Amino acid sequence: MKTLRSLVFAVVAVLAFGGCLQQEKIIKLKADGSGTIEERMVMGKQMVDQMKMMSGGLAGLGLGGAPAAAEPTTPAAPAFQVLDEKKLKAAAAKMGDGVTFVSATPLTTPAGEGYVATYAFTDISKVKISGDAGEMMPGGAAGMNMATKGAKAEPITFGFTKGAPATLTVNLPQQAPADLPKERPAMPAGSEDMMMTMMQQMFKDMKIALSIEVAGQIAQTNAEHRDGARVTLMEMDFNKVLANPEKFKALTKAQPKSIDEMKALVKGVEGIKAEGQPQVTVKFQ
After folding, report:
1. How far apart are CA 119 and CA 137, in angstroms?
2. b/e per residue, 31-69, with b = 16+ CB within 10 A?
3. According to the model, what pLDDT value does residue 131 have?
4. Secondary structure of the chain as H, E, C letters
5. Cystine design at 115: which of 83, 91, 129, 190 (Cβ 3.0–4.6 Å)?
6. Which residue has the higher pLDDT, 6 or 211?
7. Which range among 27-41, 77-91, 175-189 shows the weakest confidence by mean pLDDT?
8. Confidence of residue 213 (pLDDT cuts 50, 70, 90)
9. How far apart (Å, rounded) are the C-alpha atoms in residues 155 and 173?
10. Domain coverage including residue 97
């Protein structure tokens, strides 16, 4: 369930900057072990504005953004951009050997500004998908290291065997008992409704998801969340979660003392999907 914990850290990091975030990754796998990773990222307008403002402030110190007037010869990074191909190419290198950046197109939605990027890989067994909340931001946006300090997570890795059917194994980092949330004081009486209103405003339109889609048909899998040829490893859609206020309140108040309790807590909650097994197997042809 460490995948669920990573989602929570990502959400906390986003709220530190004020604004919604949508990030969805779909790994599309072929029978020979090659494929693509499609990433859809959208940042809320308020969040984009804050990042640009931070970039401008750092530029005044000669640390980022446009070069400072007082030091025209000092190299400086360009102003913040949601779609930054240089950073996307660097992100591809971190995903493993044989992963390359293919293309990216800008994306504007009612929720904000973003991009759709495509990466290609030659061997899924060499791919690593980070569970680090900071890397869920576009290009490791400025300041995210502070917001996500302590949120490091082991990467999701894969194994693959060719054949008819081909076999994919997904290795998911598991949460140690020490990683469970610490016990916290009860909320003051009468504060729940106020907190719910704040949550509805802060989490509106937020979504984070990771899934795998195979070419052909799935012959066998132990995955908990399967839809046709697609297996969802983790998903948090806050519009769906917030549609059930009472359940959301129960989630925020709960203090699970074991991994099994955490699994039971999120099981069946609309808008939350988190694979609870350490290894998922998918046979397809």
Report:
1. 16
2. bebbbbbbbbbbbbeebbebbbebbeebbeebebbebbe
3. 60
4. CHHHHHHHHHHHHHHCCCCCEEEEEEEEECCCCCEEEEEEEEEEHHHHHHHHHHHHHHHHCCCCCCCCCCCCCCCCCCCCCCCCHHHHHHHHHHCCCCCEEEEEEEEEECCEEEEEEEEEECCHHHCEECCCHHHHCCCCCCCHHHHCCCCCCCCEEEEEECCCCEEEEEECCCCCHHHCCCCCCCCCCCCHHHHHHHHHHHHCCCEEEEEEEECCCEEEECCCCEECCEEEEEEEEHHHHCCCHHHHHHHHHCCCCCHHHHHHHHCCCCCEEECCCCEEEEEEC
5. 83
6. 211
7. 175-189
8. very high
9. 7
10. 2-284
Total number of domains constituting the chain: 1
Token pair of 61 as six digits = 């110190």
| Euclidean distance between CA atoms 137 and 123, whole angstroms | 25
- Burial group, residue 206, by CB count within 10 angstroms (0-12, 13-18, 19+): buried
pLDDT bracket for residue 270 (50, 70, 90): confident
Contact of 270 with 241, CB cutoff 8 Å: yes
Cβ-count burial of 72 within 10 angstroms (0-12 exposed, 13-18 middle, 19+ buried)? exposed
Mean pLDDT rounded to a whole number for the chain: 77
| β-strand partners of 212 | 27, 231
